[in-house]
What does this fold into?
Amino acid sequence: MEILIITGLSGAGKTQVTHTLEDIGYFCIDNIPAKLIPQFADLVSQVGRFDRVAAVTDLRTGELFGGIFDCLSELRRLGIDYKILYIYADAEVIERRYSESRRKHPLAGGDLTTAEAIRDEKELMRPVAALADYNIDTSILSSSQLRDRVLSIFSDGGDTRMSISCVSFGFKHGIPSDSDLVLDVRCLPNPFYLPELKDLNGLDEPVADYVLKSEATRGFLSRTRELLGYLLPLYIKEGKSQLVISIGCTGGHHRSVAVCEEINHFICGLGYHSKAIHRDINKLF
It folds into this structure.
């Protein structure tokens, strides 16, 4: 038996992740103190009915993760394999979710605002995040996209391919925090300065044609395809289950979007499971 320990930031989507895992046959327990996980895992292993088990533990238990490292040591002593799934999102996204749901952050209260609670929780969780085997950033994922991401990692449907996300973004809005590879395309011709293209984006054919047909872009893509063709098999050989390739321009509307679509198409053509996500395409210039 292997136990999946689900943790992460409050409001990031752990509940939905748990529901998705239950749908594919995981036996899940929510809000369990970290120090009780070894006892729970040992008990379940003795029952023998479950080979896929997940336990959600976070700051709701009030432990502030003081026992998480002892928990992992005890699991190793018991011979129980484990993996850690860390769920998180940008602070402003989590704050908006709490505002919309009218719920209280577990650390908020007294003189501590929701924004301050989110900041403090992120710092408290940093050592745990560093241990994670899987990371999912839910900041820009819809409910269905989050479900698809979980299924792509944990479903036993026979698809063991690495899950790849090609993410376009704007450097002015920050680099995606879960990036494995970052490609900077600010060196390519910029449609923003052409009046007839400025208000379009990289999904529109005139913009895509302008970006992709330039000599600089053709050279960039040629070398990037060669690099990815070399790297992707190495990542798979290493056992990597998910890969985030982030492609950035200044605002995340034109060049990064067009190049992201092209790179995603190339990766899919190689037979990998890949999707394109455009993080900043609808943000203001």
Observations:
- The mean pLDDT is 89.
